[in-house]
Structures are given as structure tokens and as C-alpha cells.
Amino acid sequence: MKALLIILTLLLLFAVNSTAQTDKKQIREGNKLYKNKKFRESEVSYQKALKKDPKSFKANFNLGDALYKQEKYEEAVKQFTEVEGKSGNKTNSAKVYHNLGNSYLLKNKIDESISAYKNALRNNPRDMATKYNLAYAQALKKKQEQQKKQQNQNQNQQQKQQKQEQKKDNKQQQPKDQQMSKEDADRMLKALQDDEKNTQDKVKKIQAQRSNQNIEKDW
């Protein structure tokens, strides 16, 4: 619903300004072309008018409208910025800042659009269209901040999980102390005892043989 409101608001403000009456032929032609949605041709007419009167607020403002309608948002921003000092009164200044905010918003420059809408409301605090657009831009900014915060949290969580997995892998790779069961210990002890007994038997046998040899030698 908010997106629909902002679209209706943009159309409303541009339509009002595009039908403004003027004594200059080029501006009248530009307005007629604009009304017929021939925005490129209307741009040319407004530029011709500005060659004769570079300070014309209506020609400058409507040129910004024509650029906006062609989705030339960067050029529209420059044009409306150029018009800021030529508005002549607060009502016109509010319209300039409103359309400047729209141009920034469609360039996804949320902070700049919010600033422009606030300037528009300083000149015309009762403009409901600008209030709607400001609320929309602020809600959009809040949503982007929440998404960025969530992305950072997910990234931190992922890094933490990776560190834990790496720590776990390192721990698994470390040599483990061999733990001996009671049965294994008993078997090993018995084997050692058997080896010791066998060794003692061999020693006794060797000693006995040596004794026999000595006895035989005495004979």
C-alpha cells in the first residue's frame, strides 16, 4: 500500500507542474508534449526555453520532470538541485525538494531522499504527499538497516561455527593417550611373569651345564 501511495504521489506532483500555464511558446509546447507522454520531445522544448531565459523557474522545473519521466534520475537530481535557488517562494521550494526526494529515492539514495523530503516539509509542513513519501523512505531505511544487521549476525555466527569446527578437527587430530583395560593389564603382567620365569629357567639350566662341565673337568 505504501508503494502505491508513493507512485500516486509522484504522478500527482508532476502532473500539476506539467500543466502550468506560461506565456512562452517553448514551455507551452513542452507542456503539451509532456501531457502526451512525449517526454524526450518535451525535454527539448524546455531546453530551448532555457536558452532564451536560463533563470526561468518553470522551464527548469519542468525540464527536471521530463528527465525524471525518462528515468534519467541522475540528471533529474542535478536539474532539481539547480532549481533550488530559483523557486522564488516556499510553495515552489517545497515542490522542488519533493521531486528531488523522489529522484533520490528511485536512485536508492535513501538518506538523501529523506533529507530532501524534510526540506520540502520545512517549506510546506501540510503537504501530505511529502509526508507519505518521507514515511515510506524512513521505513525503507529501517528495513535495510535490519537486513544489514541480520546479515552481520549471520556472518558472525558462521565465523563462530567455523572456528568451533576447526577447533574440533584439531582436537581430533591430536594423538590420544592409549588407555589399557584391566584385562589387558592382567595379560601383560602374566606375559611378563612368564617371560621372567622362562628367563630364570634358562639361567638355571646354563648354570647347571657349567657345573657339569667343571665336574667333568675335575675328573
Characterize the quaternary organization of these chains: single chain
CA-to-CA gap between the ends? 128 Å
> Total helix count?
9
Which shape, going by the Cα principal axes?
rod-shaped
* Name of the top-level CATH class of the domain at 2-144: Mainly Alpha
Average pLDDT works out at 79
CATH fold descriptor of the domain at 2-144: Serine Threonine Protein Phosphatase 5, Tetratricopeptide repeat
Query: Strand share of the residues?
Result: under 5%
What structural class do you assign from the helix and strand content?
A: mainly alpha
C-alpha-based Rg, rounded: 45 Å
Q: Using DSSP, what is the number of strands? A: 0
Which homologous superfamily in CATH is the superfamily of the domain at 2-144?
A: Tetratricopeptide repeat domain
Order of helices and strands: HHHHHHHHH
Low-confidence stretches: 1-8, 15-23, 210-219
CATH architecture of the domain at 2-144: Alpha Horseshoe
Percent of residues in helical segments?
Answer: over 70%
Q: Describe the main β-sheet briefly.
A: none
Q: How would you describe this structure to a colleague?
A:
The protein has 219 residues and is mainly α. It has a domain at 2-144: Alpha Horseshoe (Serine Threonine Protein Phosphatase 5, Tetratricopeptide repeat). It is 82% helix and 0% strand. It has nine helices and no strands. Helix 2 (25-35) runs antiparallel to helix 3 (39-52), helix 3 (39-52) runs antiparallel to helix 4 and helix 6 runs antiparallel to helix 7 (110-123). It is rod-shaped, with a radius of gyration of 45 Å. The relative contact order is 0.07.
